[in-house]
Amino acid sequence: MKLSSKVADLFCASRDRREFNAALKQQYDSLYRLAYAWCHQPAVAQDLVQETMLKALESRKDLNSLQHLSAWLTKIMRNQFLDEMRFNRRWEWADESEIDEHHCSHCNESELIKKQRNESLYVAISKLPFEQREAILLADLQGFSYQEIAEITATPIGTVMSRISRGRERLRGLLKKQDSQPNVVPLRRH
After folding, report:
1. Which among 1, 10, 56, 156 is most buried, taking Cβ atoms within 10 Å?
2. Inter-residue contact 135 to 170 (CB < 8 Å)
3. What is the pLDDT of residue 154?
4. Are 101 and 92 in contact (CB under 8 A)?
5. What is the pLDDT of residue 118?
6. CA angle at 41 for the pair 51 and 175, rounded to the nearest 5°
7. pTM for the complete prediction?
8. What does the DSSP 8-state code read for residue 154?
9. DSSP state, 65?
């Protein structure tokens, strides 16, 4: 009887571990998008997500339910990102025009216009203060509720709402300013 209960315990632990690992795999792309939006550097974003996954595996017993996995992982990644920013003040933001410049030559007109719009949005988002950028990305890119964002960032819900509101307003202003500047791409030489 003792042997069968041990086998049952091992099977349950193994099944829980497999479910947890599968749920982690499902969260990878979402975490990467957020990490890239925070740091704008693919290698740094990958490192940040991998560190987050490692910390999650180390402390998986702290997670109450898999329903809260996304918010829990985002909180871990946010803390990891802030730690990296504190300890490594030498972060350099890459200029968007330097990133993947060689892809532009292969784009057709509509893809080029779409890419320019996306670049304009990324540039405008990167000009927001971190607190506003973080709140907007968690709400609009990751789809978290205000309550979840408040828990992830350890700030009152009113502060979260204020940061999102002010950040969106500032973002609109930055995008309008960019739209007012001529952004014409010559397609043919005269």
Report:
1. 56
2. no
3. 93
4. no
5. 75
6. 125
7. 0.57
8. T
9. -
Q: 98 vs 90, 93, 142, 161, CA distance in Å?
A: 19, 11, 27, 34
As given in the structure block, the two tokens for residue 185 are: 């791409």
- Per the structure block, which two tokens stand in for 53? 């996954």
What letter represents residue 106's amino acid?
A: H
Residue with tokens 């532009």: 104
Both tokens assigned to 43: 């290698």
CB atoms within 10 A of CB 102: 6
**Residues near 137 by beta carbon (within 8 Å), at least 6 away in sequence:** 34, 37, 38, 125
27 is written with which tokens? 């969260």
Q: What is the pLDDT of residue 18?
A: 83
**How far is Cα 27 from Cα 41, in angstroms, rounded to an integer?**
19
What number of residues does the chain have? Answer: 190
